[in-house]
Structure formats: structure tokens, C-alpha cells
Amino acid sequence: MLLTLDLNDPRPLHEQVAGAVRRAVASGTVLPGQRLPSARELADALGVNANTVLRALRDLRDEGVLEFRRGRGVSVLRPPDGREVLRRMARELLDEAERYGHRPEEVIEIIKELS
Question: Is Transcription one of the keywords UniProt gives this record (predicted)?
């Protein structure tokens, strides 16, 4: 499972890890029922602390994307809800736009120009 993080991304690392796993599941790289590598293995691969990965995995469990089973590790329960993923991405876009001084209405106009 190949995940990458953007070191220039201002979001907390656990959110970036959760997003990377969420994208892997949504894209079909990791399928429902498939086990994930251990938190320690993921942390080593990403160059982050294992607690950061565990926090991300717990967030995904709370969303219903992952399932924790004692003695069996963490496995994918279901793909993330596409609408929820888009809401999260839209929130990130609006936050980024605000950092650059743009209002939501301006973002909507930009999106309309692209479609």
C-alpha cells in the first residue's frame, strides 16, 4: 500500500494520513475486507509517529471506513461515502481560499468557470 504525505500541507499529519488511506480505499487500491499494514509499518513508510497513524485510523473507524478486530488488525469495512469525501474536500478548499482572502462566493464562481 503506497501512501504519500505532502510536507507542505498545513493540515495536521493525522488528517493527512487519514486522507491518504481514505483515497486508497475510495480508488480501490485497498478493497473492503482487505487488511491494512500495521500502524507501525504505515508510520515507518510515511516517516511519522505510530500514534499519528493510530489517530488517523481511529478517525476512519469512527467514520465507518475501517474495522478494528482484536488479533486480526485493521481491515477496510467499506469505501468512504463519496458525498462525505466531497464535503471534506470542499471544506478544505474553502479554508484554503480564506487563507488567500477569497470568499465562498468567489470559489463558487471559479468552480462554475471550470465546469
Answer: yes
The domain segmentation of the chain, as residue ranges, is 9-79, 81-115
- Give the residue among 56, 40, 52, 1 at the shortest CA–CA distance from 24: 1
pTM (predicted TM-score): 0.71
CATH code for the domain defined by 9-79: 1.10.10.10
- What's the confidence (pLDDT) of residue 26? 86
User: What pLDDT is recorded for position 1?
Assistant: 67
**Nearest C-alpha neighbor of 17 from the set 44, 32, 81, 31:** 44
CA dist., res. 16 & res. 36, Å (int): 17
- Cβ neighbours of residue 45 closer than 8 Å, sequence gap 6 or more: 3, 37
